[in-house]
Design goal:
This protein is of the alpha/beta class. It folds into 2 domains: 2-237, 3-Layer(aba) Sandwich (Collagenase (Catalytic Domain)); 257-370, no CATH class. It has helices spanning 13-24, 70-73, 80-94, 142-158, 162-168, 187-193, 198-206, 211-237, 266-276, 291-301, 307-318, 324-340, 342-345; strands spanning 2-7, 31-33, 77-78, 101-106, 109-110, 116-118, 125-129, 243-246, 251-254, 260-261, 282-283, 357-358, 367-370. The strands form 4 sheets. Strands 2-1-4-7-6 form a 5-stranded mixed sheet, sandwiched between helices. The protein has a 4-stranded mixed sheet with strand order 10-9-8-13. A two-stranded parallel sheet has the order 3-5.
């Protein structure tokens, strides 16, 4: 079954492609497709922000409003009809068959403040809200977003039409994939439990949902639950996780976090590989002594063909009067901290005292390479 993940332009590359990578790290019956750069699918110029007092607002879409935190009140919100304009526009321009699923990942909020929603007019259209998950789940937003998508795909098979699904949803939370979560904080219980209640298991059995679909759903839910609980319990465990450098470009991943990819630019990755290759550490003032090695990394990783441009970058990184190296290390740190949290990131970032050796402290036995 083909599933197309599209996005509005506020959804960053790391989150968008990270969600897709996570959904694919367990083999299953779905083929997930991404769609280029978000600028190609921006709805910002095509839809109008509507509010409840606007006469053009689609009032029939207001069902049961959720209680919102004050932080959520400031989010720009769109009507469902306008959100699904992006899905339908994508279907038309790309020739997507009606039986294929199109899921819009969007940082826009919606009326009436749902985590995800379905298109009553065009089957197999859905949206998932990507923002402010930190209010309900610790750590990486990929996991609750992936949970919403996995939930959509199972419900797609369990019910003939969305109205049947909505009728079957539990108004009182059970920790089941069909919990409605009218009080939005109830989704924390749903994510931590990552289960399917006996009533819903009976629906699955009666519908004769294939074992491959069931296995994929349970394995994904278990994986999401493990990631979320690991983040919550890290202060008790304090054990760093293995680091995988994958492919010709040695892209860094944390496999135990659902093949979480750290998206570094070629220049950042070149600096990172240099320090990773020197567990003893390197003083910033001594990086020039490793210029040949750094240059090899940059030429290997760079998307440029101009050797002179690459060598100029290497020169800037090695110059004592340039901030280029410090800027790259700061950006590397920020990316690890954003995805792993400040505590867990300490094992992977380049750190050290001013004027002293800068190093990556992870035990090199935890560093693996895969072509």
């Amino acid at each position: 079954m083909n599933v197309y993940l599209i996005r509005t332009d506020g959804v960053e590359d790391a989150l968008y492609f990270g969600v897709c990578d996570f959904l694919q790290h367990i083999p299953g019956p779905f083929t997930f497709h991404t769609h280029g750069h978000p600028a190609e699918l921006s709805i910002q110029d095509e839809v109008k922000l509507l509010f409840p007092d606007d006469e053009k607002y689609h009032r029939q879409e207001v069902m049961e409003s959720r209680v919102m935190y004050s932080a959520e009140m400031s989010v720009e919100r769109l009507s469902w009809k306008d959100l699904f304009h992006a899905n339908n526009d994508f279907r038309k321009k790309s020739g997507i068959p009606a039986e294929d699923i199109v899921i819009l990942l969007t940082d826009y909020g919606n009326y009436p403040n749902w985590f995800s929603g379905y298109d009553e007019e065009t089957p197999n259209n859905y949206f998932v809200h990507t923002e402010q998950w930190e209010l309900y789940a610790a750590g990486d937003n990929r996991y609750p977003i992936a949970y919403q998508i996995v939930s959509i795909l199972l419900k797609q098979i369990m019910f003939d039409k969305p109205s049947e699904m909505f009728t079957a949803m539990h108004k009182t939370a059970r920790g089941c994939i069909l919990d409605f979560c009218e009080q939005k904080e109830e989704i924390s219980f749903k994510l931590r439990t990552a289960d399917i209640c006996p009533d819903c298991q009976k629906i699955i059995a009666d519908r004769k949902v294939s074992h491959v679909h069931i296995r994929y759903t349970f394995e994904m839910m278990d994986s999401i639950r493990r990631q979320l609980l690991f983040r919550e319990r890290y202060d008790l465990v304090r054990n760093p996780l293995p680091l995988l450098l994958k492919g010709r470009n040695k892209s860094p991943y944390i496999p135990d976090l659902g093949m979480l990819k750290i998206n570094l630019t070629p220049a950042e990755l070149g600096v990172y590989l240099l320090f990773l290759n020197h567990p003893e550490g390197i003083k910033v003032s001594d990086v020039v002594d490793h210029r040949t090695e750094l240059s090899e990394y940059m030429h290997l990783l760079s998307r440029r063909d101009d050797r002179a441009v690459i060598e100029k970058l290497v020169e800037d990184l090695c110059r004592a009067d340039s901030n280029s190296l410090s800027e790259k290390m700061a950006k590397i740190r920020a990316k690890f901290v954003k995805l792993l949290g400040a505590d867990l990131a300490q094992s992977y970032i380049i750190s050290g005292p001013n004027g002293g050796e800068k190093k990556i402290v992870i035990d090199r036995e935890l560093v693996k390479y895969e072509e």
